[in-house]
Amino acid sequence: MELKNCHSQQEALELVLAGRSCTLIVDFDLVGAEEVMRMATLLPPEQKPALLAVASRAWPGTGQAFQSGASRILYKPFGPELLKEALKSSRKGKSNRRKSQRYNVKTLVYLELEHGTLPGISIDIGEHGLALQATEAVPMMSNLPFRCVLPGTEITLHGHADVIWASDQGRAGLFFSKLAPTARKQLKSWLSKRGHSKNAARDLLPPSDAHVSFTACEEEEELPVETR
Questions:
Q1: The domain made up of 9-100 is a member of CATH 3.40.50.2300
Q2: Quick one: CA dihedral 18, 32, 111, 180, positive or negative?
Q3: Interior CA angle at 94 toward 34 and 81, to 5°?
């Protein structure tokens, strides 16, 4: 077992998404800890690592840790034996499950909003757009700048997208409104290598049981017709 210190939220989440972390330990006395844990809890069970929270007994860290979805909370100070026991317990069943099941690899998606960056995790990526799960509701808007790394590659996709539907729980469907020719070529190549269906527009549709808002279509102006 190897412990690795991550120096940013993005580094920690990318290690998890790359399948290189069987246990994620988050210190809730650090800024951004709650967001990292929330993002990790969005992953499907097959890809989700064991989640351990570390906190002092001071507020708000301890409250955030308790509500974070972590499988266990370790309160400071604690010794190496307690950490070793927690890691051993959290890893039970993880390795066998990962070897026996296949899953769609997820990736981080960053939406650049006016007030800051909203991170999310991809649900599906297609030729014309993507569906994602964010940590909060995605606003309905057009030409939203985004970026993401295509799973299994080092290719970063930059572009703009229109939010065509969104739910209060953070799910959203984005239609690519602007992609550079090079980026579109890379995306098509990535999709073809994974046998992705060309008729994949349905992958952008919301779940049938979800309560979502859709983009309103502008009504076409009726032109007068001259009759004789």
A1: yes
A2: negative
A3: 70
